[in-house]
Design a protein that fits this description.
Elements: E1 2-6, H1 10-19, E2 26-31, E3 42-45, E4 48-51, E5 56-58, H2 64-71, E6 78-80, E7 86-90, E8 93-96, H3 101-106, H4 112-126, H5 138-145, H6 149-163, H7 167-170, H8 175-187, E9 192-195, H9 200-212, E10 216-220, E11 226-230, E12 233-237, E13 242-245, E14 247-250, H10 254-260, H11 267-270, E15 279-288, E16 298-301, E17 306-310, H12 311-314, E18 324-331, H13 340-361, E19 369-381, E20 402-403, H14 414-434
Parallel strand pairs: 1-2, 1-14, 2-10, 7-16, 14-20
Antiparallel strand pairs: 3-4, 5-9, 6-9, 7-8, 11-12, 12-13, 15-18, 15-19, 16-17, 17-18
Helix pairs in contact: 1-9, 1-14
Bound molecules: flavin-adenine dinucleotide.
Length: about 450
């Protein structure tokens, strides 16, 4: 059985690593860029290890990576972000983010009465009896909840940071999704961790697992630009070749899946997923030759919807001796902005606001820059998990392919959904192959 996987990001690498254990499966993983990892790729510059995205893991002890660690024998270390140094800036006020009971007691964001109410909400979430699961969206729940504005704002802000979406979009997250997510996260002993050494520590191991078996090959810089069906096989076309496969897994952002399947017999089935919206942000990475200040591990500017992580305060492996690595992220509005000039002005304004945030908390940063990278438009999650959007299922009726990636159905959000859907796609494919042979071990919990 010959399998093609299109996309060498976290999802595609995960699916390939699981399938490489199957002795009756051979395959090719196609990646159009020169490196693996997709949006989780890492590169080295002037002694700094820079991540295209961040490598924070929410709820590590309950995360899909824990299953993968055992099933694929991955090894990695992680470190908890110092919760006492996770701060919110609101108006002129700086206060601890209420991530746990200690911070909740310390924060000025809520009054004592509001804190009592919030503790009640957390407790109900942990016990899985929170009413929110019966509401269409977080916004619907909040508007009927009778909660004070500050409690509402706190909910929006929490969801915004865990789901990586704007506070406005946070209101659109389905109640059942919030209930599941926070039931898991509030029970976790390891709420926010970094994989020490970046996502590359994981992607390199996945790559090695695939490369170790001679049944699989990695086709780098070979973007797939066409697919057709002929005599029981799927023919994939790249600039270098056309090759036939028995099964195909799409492991790329949903927008790109839709594009690749345009003008094929399968196009109509993708139509419901065409208008999904993605989270887009501006990323402002700076590597500094010295530690200019270390007041927090994370500061969220609630006024301007942006935040800075002192990545090196948690992950000290990413910097040259004495250096500091800061990552600023600003949410971008999805309101259409007319004209190139207006768009440019908007991005310049966001850049200035970000630099002001650096100035406020990291004075001297401009003179200590060793490395700087600004990405004015980075896709964080291919499909925002909000009402109106539809995550792509791992299988679609009448479509012979398998789908995975952070825009697909799966456990968790962001990278966790990329990993979990990749694992599940591999499991579904294996189950298909074994259907008539023997009982199947499913990877899905
Ligand atoms: C700034 C930023 C910060 C982030 N922070 C976090 C965080 O802290 N925690 C977290 O969990 N997640 C975070 N994420 C999200 C995380 O990086 C993504 O969810 C994850 O990397 C998505 O993986 P994927 O495999 O689904 O997709 P991708 O990474 O997009 O992989 C798809 C791959 O397919 C390839 N491809 C596309 N089309 C073709 C084609 N036609 N032929 C061949 N190859 C093709 C692409 O080149 C790419 O390599 C962040 C993302 C960003 C941008």
């Amino acid at each position: 059985m010959k399998v093609a996987i299109i996309g060498g990001g976290l999802a595609g690498l995960t699916a390939a690593a699981y399938l490489s254990k199957e002795t009756d499966v051979q395959g090719v993983l196609f990646e159009r860029s020169p490196q693996l990892g997709g949006r989780a790729f890492t590169y080295e510059k002037a002694g700094f290890t820079l991540n295209y995205g961040a490598h924070a893991i929410y709820g590590l002890d309950r995360h899909i990576l824990t299953n993968m660690e055992n099933e694929l024998q991955l090894t990695f270390s992680s470190k908890q972000v110092d919760k006492r140094k996770v701060m919110y800036e609101k108006g002129e006020q700086l206060t601890p983010a209420p991530l746990d009971f200690v911070n909740l007691m310390k924060t000025d964001i809520l009054t004592v009465r509001q804190k009592v109410r919030f503790v009640g909400e957390i407790t109900a979430m942990i016990a899985n009896i929170h009413q929110i699961k019966h509401y269409n969206t977080l916004g619907d729940y909040l508007s009927e909840s009778g909660a004070d504005e500050d409690v509402k704002e706190l909910w929006e802000h929490l969801v915004c940071s865990n789901f990586f979406i704007t506070p406005e979009d946070a209101r659109l997250v389905p109640g059942a999704v919030i209930s599941d997510y926070y039931h898991n996260l509030f029970l976790s002993q390891r709420p926010v961790n970094y994989v020490l050494g970046s996502w590359a520590v994981i992607t390199n191991q996945l790559r090695d697992k695939i490369a170790l078996t001679e049944r699989w090959s990695l086709a780098m810089q070979e973007g797939v630009d066409g697919i057709r069906y002929e005599q029981g096989k799927y023919l994939l076309k790249t600039k270098a070749r056309e090759e036939s496969f028995d099964r195909v897994i799409f492991a790329m952002p949903v927008q790109q899946v839709v594009k690749l399947l345009r003008e094929t017999p399968w196009e109509p089935f993708l139509e419901p997923y065409e208008h999904n919206t993605a989270t887009e942000v501006m990323v402002y990475d700076i590597g500094l030759s010295r530690v200019v200040a270390r007041p927090f591990s994370y500061i969220s500017d609630m006024n301007h919807k942006m935040f800075i992580s002192d990545v090196s305060a948690t992950d000290y492996t990413l910097i040259p001796e004495g250096g500091q690595l800061l990552q600023g992220i600003a949410y971008l509005s999805d309101e259409p902005i007319d004209g190139n000039e207006d768009r440019k002005a908007y991005l310049n304004e966001r850049t200035t606001q970000m630099e002001d945030l650096f100035d406020r908390h990291y004075p001297g940063w401009r003179d200590a820059i060793a490395v700087k990278r600004v990405s004015k438009k980075a896709m964080v999650q291919s499909v925002k998990n909000i009402a109106g959007n539809r995550l792509l299922p791992n299988r679609i009726e009448s479509v012979p392919f398998y789908f995975c990636g952070d825009g697909c159905e799966g456990k968790g959000e962001l990278a966790e959904r990329a990993f979990s859907s990749g694992r599940h796609a591999a499991s579904l494919l294996t189950a298909d192959l074994r259907k008539h042979k023997q009982p199947v071990l499913s990877y899905r919990e």
